[in-house]
Amino acid sequence: MDSVTSSAAEEDECANTEAWCLMRVGRNSDWLLLLDNTEITIGRGLDVTYQLLSPSCPLMISRLHCVFKQMEDGQWTVTDRKSLNGVSVNGKRIPAEAVHRLRLGDSVQLGVPIIGTKVEYEYLLVQRPLKDIKPFLAKVHSSDAKTALISKKTKRKFNMDEVEPSTSSKPKLYRCSSSDKSFAQPCPPVQHQQRPSTSQPEETGSSAEVQAADPPSHSLSCPSDLDNLQMYSQNILMLRERVDDTRRRVESLEGQPQQGDPLKVEQVRELQSQLETLRAKMHRMETLERSFSETKKQLEAQKTCQEEKLLKKQLEEALQEQKKVIEELALSRQGFEEILLAKNKELEVTKEEKEKARAQKEEVVTQVTEVLENELQCIICSELFIEAVILNCAHSFCLHCISEWRKRKDECPICRQVIQSQTRCLALDNCITSMVDNLSLDMKARRQTLITQRKGESCQPRSGDGDS
Question: I need a labelling partner for 214 at 20 to 30 A (CA). Which of 2, 86, 355, 356 fits?
Answer without folding.
Answer: 2
